[in-house]
């Protein structure tokens, strides 16, 4: 969506970035020139350049080699239940500040005590107020697998994830060209990370399947418009091949939403906002885990 009139580039001309196969000239000062996703990734690339200057890739690989052995994410997300991925999330582009979370490790420990099967940690700084230090802090106190939730566009970020103790890494199809998606999936698996490949449309799902994704997350939130449509999962889940783990992302407000996603075929749900804004995250996670373990969660789901 473009704003009215002719776009005027800042001094020095436009910046160019590649999002899902599109080379686009973008002006970050024009709010109509880029989607939310594109703007986030521009910031991610800028921050990434700074980190690469501080920690060379060879040093990062050495740190990754010293990191704890990866946990089995596939086992955590499988089984005869609906698994719960509980998220450490301070802020979001759609809602702004959600929770201060001064101690992400303590929150993650509460999640684990409530029965969470996987902990997701936002590490994107500008829009989600997350850090890699949060990831390392969580790894130090929990035994369940940890997902690095970020906008990963290079293999350097995968090495960062392993170096800070992650067991899974998010790869967003809409943010990557197909060759990059295939390459990042292969690289992640080669260094012990389970790639969670996120989609929002049937076209993105086809790309994820073609790339060999073994875990596919269907995000009810359109990252380009921030609108939520909980029916997206039900539309796409039947098209996900048998044997691929299906995760419903966004829109889980409580057990009733988990059960709705379960009936549509979800193997797991990812929950963030409702947990960090609630009064008792441990109890809220436990309610979700209990619902996910109930036989009703597998009725009419094809499991």
Automatic annotation (TrEMBL):
<protein>
    <recommendedName>
        <fullName>Indole-3-glycerol phosphate synthase</fullName>
        <ecNumber>4.1.1.48</ecNumber>
    </recommendedName>
</protein>
<feature type="region of interest" description="Disordered">
    <location>
        <begin position="1"/>
        <end position="25"/>
    </location>
</feature>
<comment type="similarity">
    <text>Belongs to the TrpC family.</text>
</comment>
<comment type="pathway">
    <text>Amino-acid biosynthesis; L-tryptophan biosynthesis; L-tryptophan from chorismate: step 4/5.</text>
</comment>
<dbReference type="GO" id="GO:0000162">
    <property type="term" value="P:L-tryptophan biosynthetic process"/>
</dbReference>
<dbReference type="InterPro" id="IPR013785">
    <property type="entry name" value="Aldolase_TIM"/>
</dbReference>
<keyword id="KW-0210">Decarboxylase</keyword>
<keyword id="KW-0822">Tryptophan biosynthesis</keyword>
<dbReference type="InterPro" id="IPR011060">
    <property type="entry name" value="RibuloseP-bd_barrel"/>
</dbReference>
<dbReference type="InterPro" id="IPR013798">
    <property type="entry name" value="Indole-3-glycerol_P_synth_dom"/>
</dbReference>
<keyword id="KW-0456">Lyase</keyword>
<feature type="domain" description="Indole-3-glycerol phosphate synthase">
    <location>
        <begin position="37"/>
        <end position="288"/>
    </location>
</feature>
<dbReference type="Pfam" id="PF00218">
    <property type="entry name" value="IGPS"/>
</dbReference>
<dbReference type="GO" id="GO:0004425">
    <property type="term" value="F:indole-3-glycerol-phosphate synthase activity"/>
</dbReference>
<keyword id="KW-0028">Amino-acid biosynthesis</keyword>
<dbReference type="InterPro" id="IPR045186">
    <property type="entry name" value="Indole-3-glycerol_P_synth"/>
</dbReference>
<dbReference type="GO" id="GO:0004640">
    <property type="term" value="F:phosphoribosylanthranilate isomerase activity"/>
</dbReference>
<keyword id="KW-0057">Aromatic amino acid biosynthesis</keyword>
<dbReference type="InterPro" id="IPR001468">
    <property type="entry name" value="Indole-3-GlycerolPSynthase_CS"/>
</dbReference>
